[in-house]
Fold this protein.
Amino acid sequence: MTTDQSATGGPRPAAGPSAASGDDSPAGPPPGPTTSTEAARAGVPDGADPASGTGGGTAPTAGAPAGTRSTDKDPVTSDARGTSGRDNDRPGTASGTGDAKAGDATNSGDARTRLGDAGAKPGAAGTSDDVTTDGDVKAVAGDAGTTGDGRAKDADGKDREDGAAEAGAAKAGTDKAGAAKEGAAKDDTDKNGDGKESGKSEEGGKEAGKPDRWAAFASAPEPRPSWVRRAARAVGRVLIHEWTLATLGSLALAVLMTWPTMRYPLHTLPQDYWDPSLQAWQMAWSGHILLTNPAQLWQSNTFFPEDWSFAFSDTLLGYAPAGMIGTGPEAAVLRYNIMFVLAHALATLGAYALARQLGAGRIGGAVAGVGYAYAPWLLAQAGHLHVISNGGIPLALAMLARGHGYSLRHGYRPERRHDGWVYTGWLVAAWQLSLGFGIGLPFAYFLGGAVVVAAVTWYVRRTWFWAVKRPFGRRLLAADLVGGLLFAGVGALLAVPYFTVKEQHPQAERTVADIGIFSPPASGFFTAPAESRIWGELHEGARAALPWHPEMTLLPGFVLYALAAGGLFFSVWKLRHRLLLLAGVVVTMVLAMGTRLFDGTYTYVPLFEHLPGWSGLRTPGRLMLWTTLLLGLLAAGAVSAFATRVREICAERIPSWPGPWLRLATLLPLVLVITEGLNVTPHPVVPQQPAAMRTVAGPLLVLPSSQNLDQPVMLWSTTRFQDVVNGGSGFTPHQLDEVRRVTLSFPDQTSVDYLRILGVRNVLLMRDQIAGTPWEVTVDAPVDGLGITREEIGQVVVYRL
């Protein structure tokens, strides 16, 4: 047997498998170098071991006829591969750059090859010990092969001479100084006489440390971009991000769907100028007083001389930062229109974020967002900004779910927890509550119930059902505690003025009979308001049958109904989640009916009587907001499943890109939901502010006075914020009722004395509004004996008391 001296001086067996395999296969070639001619005669490529298959190809499989070879080549893992194929023509010569020796069963570098398989039957051939060569190549043993001392071993256990087992792997008399280095292996590096690495092959004599000669043909390295280019790329990545596109898309859609709100934003208001004027004043007042005298926030300039008058209706306090910009009625109207559009955009974005967080696709999330923000029933609420401003509800839920690592499709994933999102979610929830209790109070109770249910469910699952205990984390717990306390604290602070008003004005509290007036029948869920472009005229007869159709036309959209119904059977949500969403839809619809179902005895009335603050809610139909959100989530599951199926179909196409019809089919649900939300909402011009309101000081009274007439007066007062007796809200204080009754005979001694006692110093009588009223006769009566003066300022008669 021939041996090779390793770098450490010890003998090393030649790399070659045993020829004997225990069957009738021929023995290997005789020992000694195998020439290229001999290899060719045997049907083996030059430089290859006939048994091992190295060099030119792999060994033939068991039972293959002589002269055949596999076309699969052994992978070469060494990094040094620069030797040409001509080195394989030299038997027993090492290339020095990573090529295998002729007759060896080695590859360059750390490559490992299994020897002894050629011509062997399964389980018969192999080598008993690992045979290591310069390239750190090992052959794995079988019953027949080579023993550790280098002798071949037959299948019956008898040793025979290694010369018959050699596969043409002769050393050819090369010495250690001229031996090749296998790749970059440091352990087998040969040294020359003076201690330096020879680094040269016997063939080329080139140093391995020199740069690759082919490197000159490589492509030039990409230059480092300047800071301007890097900044531009960063901005580009932000602009094409999903949430950037979702935000911009929500804004653009809000402008289009609320048009012509932004056509004349300084002069018109959506739907009417009564409640919108009140709410425009609310934003202006909160911004003004927080800048000048925050302690007097709840003591507004209207309803003089009443206390806590800012709490007579929902305050929209969360919009106070916007109220700090600009003064006067035009700025207030512009501010209202901008917030009206932004409220729609936030509702779209919030519902989209919630659907995406729960696991819906992009188109499914868009359907949920559009269906939630532009449901037909909300068109009747266009004059109620505190109802339209509901986007904080789904947005807060989305942030809280994200912070807790929860989604409907994937459940609880602890690795996705993030306490920052939890804090932000609670802050958004508190901000939503500050916009008004009409929408915020049911949200607060839902959030409290959801926290309790989630905590109990998590504890039960962690204790009895989860094989692996899923952590919650102290930071997350701290975020929930701090955020929950913040939310509860904001709610408590906002509730104090309302409970005070309730004590001072008992008539402000609703009764069950009041709830019955605004409770819609079941037909209201399929009736659209007059502001709907698609269904408005068609449902005129159905609206006529409703006692109070502005609060009873509760159609969320027939398309949304259909998509949600489909989502019960074909959806990305699990079955139990679909059933829970369906249960939520049914429960919220029952509650929205108020006292219509079983007189509310088992549905709405228990909430009305036992939940704190619930008795202040006048219109149960606004709970349809929750029905719409849940229907949107069901629809999002169906649309997402449909989009997933389309992608699977497209994956089978070449190229894998959806065709125009498939793309249209995917977008069709979204288009239909948008179409059903189109409106014909009127935008009347706001009455112009009289010049006297900019010059006359308060306290003052503007006549005529009524609920609808007083709301524009509140808007006019935003120039000076002087105290005015006028005011409009969800209820009328007894004091204001008395003022309206006494002043019907103004100007006379009784009314003048009464107003002086009240503290009123000026009275403004609007000539353009007195037709058909008692003042049409008395407006020009002399006032000499009353101790007051009379002055004309434009169309306004000013009486100074």
Observations:
- The chain is about 40% helix and 5% strand.
- The two ends are 131 Å apart (CA to CA).
